[in-house]
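From the shared-data thread, chain only:
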Amino acid sequence: SGEPKTYSLEDGEYKIGISFSAGADLMFTLNPVTDKVGEDQTTKPTPPCTEHVDADGDGKCDNCGADMPEQPEQGQVELTMKSEANAAGQIARLLLYKNKTWEFSICFYGDTYNHMAAGTWAIRADYSAIDLAITEDEANVLGGENIVVVLDASNPTDVKYSVTLNCTVPQVGELTFALEKVDNEQPSEPDPDPDPDPDPAPEPGDALYTSNVASIYSGQDSAYLALEERCPIKQSDDG
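Structure, as tokens:
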């Protein structure tokens, strides 16, 4: 707004709210002790990453910097299951790979699927269902419950596969998807002429104080707040 604002300490921290023109509201916190940059900086534990995103394709998570989880090779899909678009336009996809691993992802907009969870699968001896064990779900999107894909073989020429997934997605909320088998669909190949890589996610640089790095727009972007020392701070005679 162009107007100066004053912030006071609350429980030892400054709380600074920022609104973006696209409608995102963020609350940054600055601790004068633990967030100070320098030799005497006190490190604080880093909270676990709630959603791994690799928008720039460098193999590192744009939010936490960790290596992206290994995903099965495309082109080796045994079974594809998808949901219809819900009221907000979100679509879920479940891929079962021939190497007995699976991947669950959600498309929030456009045609880009965001990796959510993964694991291993096995079909039951009586062919009544497929059991999916969860081995990777850092954001607890699936709530820790193993997945059962029901097989309906009442019509041998057209076996039905179905499963309903109740999800809790960080920054989005609770979602429910009813997935069914999709015939002859493989993950899309990369665009032969992709758009230029987006600017890398911001990282705190040279500053006197830096806030947390916040994820916005469902993990597609991030932001942080840095306070730089523009002029020397004079010490009074009494210290």
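The first strand starts at residue 14 and ends at 19.
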